[in-house]
């Protein structure tokens, strides 16, 4: 199974966001010389990192995962280093003059694959530095991509760098793109099983918990740098959550891992992990939500991901402008009959998802964040859905919700999609030539960040 870190994760989105909104086509050509210089700097930086790692038999270069990006990720394999006992030139022992030869070493058994992400240019050193700080602060969380300390002295490299775990099954951009393309080619509607959506929602909730309650500061069993991974839980007692937000929780930054047999949360669907902390930061408390400001924000971000997956649409096609919603009279979450305005888009009302999941997403997207469910409530709701719901709970949708149907769905759109002759690789967007609508959306996001006076850097 090939890994793919999309341009959304490591690609040119940062370049687009730095470019501004009102640029016309003529403006795009004015910096061609600068682009050439930048491309050369990026290539030289990437080559320096590759040479640094392959100078020892401990690492082997596999491939570059994205090019022309703000941060160049490369895939390496890490190996045991063993003495080369082979004959010929370089053989340990005595040479023709009876003098000791220098011992030679070679790569032995492969231990793991790693991703090395380095700033392509000095402009982006700050982003990679920020990402590494956050990854170190959030170490030990199961649903957050982990940084890896290789014990190397990287001071000789000019660019900032972070080493992280390798996740083998791509991101939600590919996953969603495969479903969209299948619909177009087969002219059939793809319906994501509710049990898939609930499981992914639980993964996202765990990721939010990991950011709100870092293992380093809340887990008494946490030992720095020992590599132990913990499932994120809300700590008991009166523990104040951080004011950290990820800042870029979209399809391209959510990576699909593997299924784990015997793990009720990941036995039918792969684990979902959040990556790319380059825009992570702390935000100030809002009067309405206080210490829960960041948590309420991230609950909404997670709900948008589930909404767009359920609609089988690209994340960036979300056109939410505030959809009015009235909770049903039998709403199980205590919201019966309440009317509100949400950040859900108008398509969500007609999405092929269960009424319970639909209502819960609406709740998580309430425009008044103080009315959103608590993190504890989100965790309990998702856990209950994952542990108890079967195909019998979905009426006419039941045939799409059996264990066999869910496994077949994941097999088709995660594991088999790239190898099926009938399906092409998912379409990639050229973010360096993004549409005015998309650029305007990103400009609005930048404005909101500036308006809130956000900071950057890990929690103390």
Automatic annotation (TrEMBL):
Residues 30-46 have a biased composition (Low complexity). Transmembrane segments: none annotated. Residues 93-105 have a biased composition (Basic and acidic residues). GO terms for molecular function: ATP binding; protein kinase activity. It comes from the Eukaryota. InterPro entries: Kinase-like_dom_sf (IPR011009), Prot_kinase_dom (IPR000719). Residues 14-47, 81-107, 420-460 are annotated as: Disordered. Residues 81-386 form the Protein kinase domain. This is Protein kinase domain-containing protein. It comes from Diatrype stigma.
């Amino acid at each position: 199974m090939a890994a793919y870190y999309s341009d959304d994760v490591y690609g040119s989105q940062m370049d687009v966001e730095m470019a501004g909104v009102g640029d016309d086509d003529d403006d795009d050509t004015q910096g061609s010389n600068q682009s050439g210089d930048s491309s050369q700097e990026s290539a030289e930086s990437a080559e320096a990192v590759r040479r640094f790692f392959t100078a020892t038999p401990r690492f082997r270069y596999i491939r570059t995962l994205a090019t022309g990006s703000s941060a160049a990720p490369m895939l390496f394999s890490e190996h045991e280093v063993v003495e080369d006992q082979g004959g010929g030139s370089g053989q340990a022992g005595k040479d023709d003059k009876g003098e000791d030869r220098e011992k030679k070493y070679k790569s032995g058994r492969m231990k793991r694959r790693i991703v090395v992400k380095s700033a392509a240019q000095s402009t982006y050193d700050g982003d990679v530095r920020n990402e590494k700080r956050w990854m170190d602060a959030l170490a030990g969380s199961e649903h957050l991509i982990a940084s890896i300390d290789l014990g190397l002295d990287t001071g000789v490299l000019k660019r900032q760098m972070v080493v992280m775990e390798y996740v083998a099954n791509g991101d939600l951009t590919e996953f969603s793109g495969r479903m969209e393309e299948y619909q177009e080619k087969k002219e059939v509607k793809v319906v994501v099983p509710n049990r898939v959506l609930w499981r992914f929602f639980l993964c996202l909730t765990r990721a939010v918990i990991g950011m709100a309650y870092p293992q380093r500061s809340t887990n008494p069993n946490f030992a720095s740098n020992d590599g132990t991974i913990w499932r994120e839980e809300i700590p008991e007692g009166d523990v104040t959550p951080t004011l950290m937000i990820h800042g870029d929780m979209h399809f391209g930054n959510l990576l699909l891992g593997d299924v784990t047999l015997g793990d009720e949360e990941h036995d039918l669907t792969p684990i979902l992990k959040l990556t790319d902390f380059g825009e992570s930061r702390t935000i100030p408390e809002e009067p309405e939500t206080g210490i829960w400001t960041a948590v309420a924000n991230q609950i909404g971000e997670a709900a948008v991901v589930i909404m767009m997956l359920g609609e089988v649409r690209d994340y960036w096609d979300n056109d939410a402008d505030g959809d009015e919603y009235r909770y049903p009279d039998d709403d199980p979450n205590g919201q019966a009959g309440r009317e509100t305005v949400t950040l859900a888009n108008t398509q969500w009302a007609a999405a092929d998802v269960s009424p319970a999941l639909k209502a819960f997403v609406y709740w998580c997207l309430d425009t008044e964040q103080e009315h959103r469910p608590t993190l504890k409530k989100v965790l309990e709701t998702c856990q209950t859905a994952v542990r108890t719901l079967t195909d019998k709970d979905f009426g006419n949708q039941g045939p799409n919700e059996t264990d066999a149907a869910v496994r077949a769905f994941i097999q088709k759109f995660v594991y088999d999609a790239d190898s099926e002759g009938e399906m092409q690789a998912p379409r990639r967007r050229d973010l360096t030539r993004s549409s005015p609508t998309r650029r305007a959306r990103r400009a609005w996001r930048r404005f909101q960040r500036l308006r809130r006076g956000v900071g950057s850097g890990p929690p103390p």
